[in-house]
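Record 1 of the preview.
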Amino acid sequence: MADFSLDLNEDQLQIQKWVHDFAEDVIRPAAHEWDEREETPWPIIQEAANIGLYSWEFIANAFGDPTGITFPMVSEEMCWGDAGITLAIFGSTLAVSGIVGNGTPEQIAEWVPQCFGTPEKLQLGAFAVSEPDAGSDVANLRTRAVYDEATDEWVLNGTKTWITNGGIADVHVIVAAIDPDLKARGHASFVVPPATPGLSQGQKFKKHGIRASHTAEVVLEDVRVPGSCLLGGKERLDERLARAREGRSTKVQAAMSTFEASRPLVGAQALGIARAAYEYSLDYAKQRHTFGRAIIENQGIAFKLADMKTEIDAARLLVWRACWMAATHKRFENGEGSMSKLKAGEVAVKVTEEAIQILGGYGYVRDYPVERWHRDAKIYTIFEGTSEIQRLIISRAISGVHIR
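->
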């Protein structure tokens, strides 16, 4: 029997140090500035591209790790530096997940590199599912895609919201309804190439946290894309729709196939925020003296830190398990992907709140980073499926009952 180990291998350790050094030397010193500016940190993305961190080759190698651990490890280290800047750098991977999860090998080869561009010409990708009236309820999308047989084009109309890189991306992946009566089974994903007429940015949101990451509406007005931009191809779509209309299983749903792959990785991002807050407050508790001794000598502080560390490590094990299961094609029978995202997101909120409490008044002001980390953490209980949605998925999986 092969030995069991949770140790990172030599390649993973080297990548971890490389990414951590970038997070420590480049991202963290710039985090406060770009949080205040609430703008896409193009100079930081450029530096990431210059060293090969922002590139489709690096993403492909990280995702290709047979253990499944490399990319969540990278995400944690990056968000240890700053979550908003990390999402600005890695937001394009959402589009990549949509393309890889639904596209043909030819489409993957064509479009994934265009989500990143080159160091000489940076490009971004965006994945658009959520709508003003369909956030967690992705089954009821109003964005429509209609096939024009005369021109072999698809015509897209609708409005997407809460889209990372929305409107500023070069490549947009849009999930739209082909047959609304089939709910999620009647959806398909489309690539909208750069500079396609009819696609525009709507409202840009001013957010509570992750402010360096651009979030906006995407408006689609008679957007025409070639038939080749339907991910998976029309023949596969027609077969899937026919099965759905006959009441047979369709297996793949355009939005869900992306979320299944991305939720544990979102959990890894939350871990990075939590770890940053824990390490900062631990150092502070050792250095801060009141009544003649370091505050960590008080059980009230020491026990908080013990709980913070325990919860972070527990959440990491759930994230790594889910990523390992995905990489080794294990079936998620009990909502393991949702468990990892649920736990990590809620741990990040709790740990950053406790960090503020440990720092006291200093934790509440913007001169200290724990205030920003707390703001950044909250989104991890909301996007990519709220905590309530994760609990719904898990409870359905473990019970076999369609809980509402």
